[in-house]
Design brief:
The protein has one domain: Beta Barrel (Maltoporin, Chain A), CATH 2.40.170.20. Helix content is 5%, strand content 55%. It has five helices and 44 strands.
Length: 748
């Protein structure tokens, strides 16, 4: 798919919508009844949508429409929040649209347990959940890992964004990158709803970057058994950051078929994401204090730097009811991804902002195939009700990742007063792995597992006990990108148990506890480290470590009054720690994360909605073998996080809603020794939306000013598990400047 064709398609769609607005036909019922709070009947859910091919379909939205009343809990299937012995939140499509979110990261930063960071050395989104890094390439789509674009995932394709907090290998299988210790993000694709959907949205960012998006859905056939949902988007222009440019092309198609005892669904997507002169991360070297944040609009990237990524991905999913209490299911997913990058990350060496950069080029090709099969059922034994499931899955990946970097041929520049250079030629000291123009394989991974679980319900289902285990096998091999010789391989297996308890003393209250383990593929040693301010190659660069297990304990209570809901959770997670000893990357000690989370959501009054929470987090490095790091906080993990989102329907103006979001992040540390402190920050977003009619058709106008005060701040620290460097020096990402977002959505 060429972007020029995509642009033509969306421009044609805009013209069609304009014609539609002039029509005198009666206004169609507002689309996407999936998220309507009034949909509570089971048969209504069935006819609305079934993103995961389940019989019950999506659980309805909670009062206020911002979050759902439940979500998918891995192999346990769809469960209501009050019947789930874990901490979860599912953000609805209405919430996604109202926040004018461009990416999954834009949605997750509204969650008080999540902060959005950057991947190591590139512009990949990374999500800090409970202080652990969850990389975007470990995001799930419809229950399958690895089939979403790696760097940034556009929001237009999805009905729901689900956050499942805590370790989850038992529920979901092992994440390919092993980064699901703090939580898992699952994306549910859009499906055709009972009411036809015809929407076009035009939006802009600071009047420099424009986007047009088309969303069309229709059901056909007897009993409307067939559904088609198509989404197209095109974005191009500058961003709020000086000289930064972003271009996006997106096509998504969702198909589904349903009858009494069988459900089928399929998704096909294409995303082309192009970034030019994107502001880089900042690495610190030899500093005794963190430098002040630069002007939020400033850009120290080199004019020749870029990052291009294009992906084709898809899924197939089916369910068949063998009997009223027995269902078989299966799913398949794939992705082919291609990336090209020319990067020039900044290393700052003093408080005046002086530093260096160098050219780093790389490419990547991913070929992913994954699938699962299973059977689940219900039975009664005496006074005990059983909900059981047996499941198996497989994930296969081949990675091609050549690189070339010139780390000894540095260019001098400054954080606050950057210097631009012509693209430098490679020096004789440049290091290369493979041919960037003709990538060869650098890694192969196969993950297989079998899981079983049984939820036993006692006392008229007031007491529920979930028991289960997953047997996981990991096969991993890395290859020299030049010679194709094996750099080492392993095959290891591990069984991870799980236990969960839930008790409902009343309809309004739910108490739960769980013990989980998360299995992760061993981390890979980075290419270089920094010792006393000097970049040095590691002796075991590129070597994969053995798999490891993260252990979690959790206890919580949930409350639901119908109009307002809340959850309070306390947790402790222990994860093996990796660091550089001299010039060797190795496992050493553990990181312990303890915390308490409070989440609140709902519609306490007829014209006001609330969504927010607070997280208190204590992270400690233990058994490190060094007095400098023993008992110190983990890089990038803030001790406290707070989010508060309010919406208020103005009674004096019908259709007008005022919105506001406050996000606070406490101080963090940029190194393992905790001698580099990064200040906390608070940002405020203010906005409004107005719903009206034009020529008998629905029109929604939205506007938001993000970071109203135009605060300069370091938004994240770290974002990469490996802590190679001077006591694990983590890199910084600068927060976004004040940004005006405007959009108009037209039904046609």
């Amino acid at each position: 798919m060429r972007l020029s064709l995509l642009s033509l398609a969306v421009r044609s769609a805009l013209a069609a919508s304009t014609i539609g607005l002039l029509s005198t036909a009666a206004m169609a019922e507002e689309a996407n009844t999936t998220d309507a709070a009034t949909e509570t009947l089971l048969d209504e859910i069935v006819v609305t949508a079934s993103a995961d091919a389940s019989k019950t379909g999506l659980l309805p939205a909670y009062q206020g429409g911002q979050v759902a009343t439940g979500s998918r809990i891995g192999i346990l299937g769809n469960k209501s929040t009050m019947e789930t012995p874990f901490s979860t939140t599912a953000y609805t499509n209405d919430f996604i649209l109202n926040k004018q979110a461009d990416s999954v990261g834009d949605i997750l930063k509204k969650d008080s347990t999540v902060r959005v960071a950057r991947g190591f050395g590139n512009f990949q989104e990374a999500y800090l959940i409970r202080g652990f890094v969850t990389n975007s390439d470990d995001t799930m789509m419809n229950g399958l890992y690895g089939i979403m674009p790696r760097q940034s995932i556009a929001s237009e394709l999805f009905e729901r964004v689900e956050v499942q907090r805590g370790a989850s290998t038992f529920l979901n299988g092992m994440a390919p990158g092993g980064s699901n210790k703090g939580g898992t993000v699952n994306l549910l694709p859009k499906r055709a709803t009972q009411t036809p959907i015809r929407k076009v949205t035009i939006s802009s960012e600071n009047a420099e970057n424009g986007k047009i998006a088309l969303d069309v859905g229709q059901r056909f056939g007897a009993n409307q058994a067939y559904g088609v949902r198509a989404n197209v988007a095109y974005q191009d222009g500058g961003t709020a950051v000086d000289d930064e440019k972003a271009k996006l092309g997106l096509v998504g198609l969702g198909l589904d078929y349903r009858q009494d005892n069988m459900r089928l669904s399929a998704d096909l997507g294409y995303q082309n994401n192009e970034l030019q002169k994107t502001r880089t991360n900042v690495t610190l070297s030899g500093l005794t204090r963190v430098p002040n944040a630069a002007d939020a609009k400033s850009n120290w990237s080199q004019p020749w730097s870029y990052s291009n990524e294009k992906d084709v991905f898809g899924t197939l999913r089916a369910e068949y009811d063998l009997s009223p209490n027995l269902t078989a299911y299966g799913a398949y997913g794939f992705r082919h991804g291609e990336e090209e990058n020319s990067l020039a990350n900044l290393t700052v060496t003093n408080l005046n902002g002086d530093g260096t950069t160098y050219r780093f080029d790389n490419a990547r090709e991913d070929d992913i195939n994954t699938g699962e099969i299973g059977i689940r059922g219900k039975l009664t034994s005496g006074k005990i009700n059983h909900n059981w499931v047996v499941s198996g899955n497989i994930y296969k990946a081949q990675i091609k990742a050549p690189y070339q970097f010139d780390w000894q041929n540095t260019l001098t520049t400054n954080l606050y007063h950057p210097t631009s250079y012509a693209k430098p030629s490679w020096s004789a000291a440049a290091l290369a792995g493979g041919d960037i123009d003709h990538p060869t394989k650098t890694g192969e991974t196969t993950l297989t597992s079998v899981a079983l679980a049984d939820t036993l319900a006692f006392m008229d289902d007031k007491l529920q006990v979930t028991l289960g285990a997953r047997h996981q096998t990991i096969e991993d091999e890395s290859f020299d990108p030049t010679t194709q010789a094996s750099n080492g391989k392993y095959k290891e297996s591990k069984t991870t148990p799980a236990f969960a308890l839930l008790y409902r003393p009343t309809d309004e209250w739910s108490v739960f506890a769980n013990y989980m383990q998360s299995l992760s593929k061993g981390e890979t040693a980075p290419l270089t480290t920094t010792i006393d301010g000097v970049t040095t190659e590691l002796t075991n660069a590129g070597q994969a470590m053995s798999p490891y297990v993260t252990k979690q304990s959790e206890i919580g209570v949930k409350y639901d009054r119908g109009v307002i809901g809340a959850g309070l959770t306390a947790f402790q997670t222990n994860k093996p720690r990796y660091t550089t000893v001299d010039t060797t990357f190795e496992a050493h000690g553990k990181n312990q994360h303890k915390g308490v989370e409070l989440n609140v959501y709902g519609q306490p009054t007829a014209n006001m909605r609330v969504l927010g929470g607070v997280t208190f987090l204590d992270t400690q490095q233990k058994d490190t073998g060094s007095d400098a790091t023993e008992g110190k906080q983990v890089i990038g993990a803030a001790k406290h996080l707070l989010n508060l989102g309010l919406e208020y329907d103005l009674p004096q103006v019908d259709g007008l809603t005022l919105t506001g979001d406050v996000i606070h992040t406490g101080k963090r540390y940029a190194n393992d020794a905790n001698t580099l402190t990064v200040d906390g920050y608070t940002t405020v977003d203010l906005g409004a939306r107005y719903k009206t009619q034009l020529a008998g058709k629905a029109v929604t106008l939205k506007g938001v000013i993000a970071n109203v005060t135009d605060k300069d701040y370091w938004s994240s620290v770290g974002g990469y598990e490996n802590t190679a460097g001077d006591n694990g020096a983590g890199y910084l990402t600068l927060g976004e400047p004040r940004t005006l977002k405007l959009s108009a959505t037209f039904d046609f």
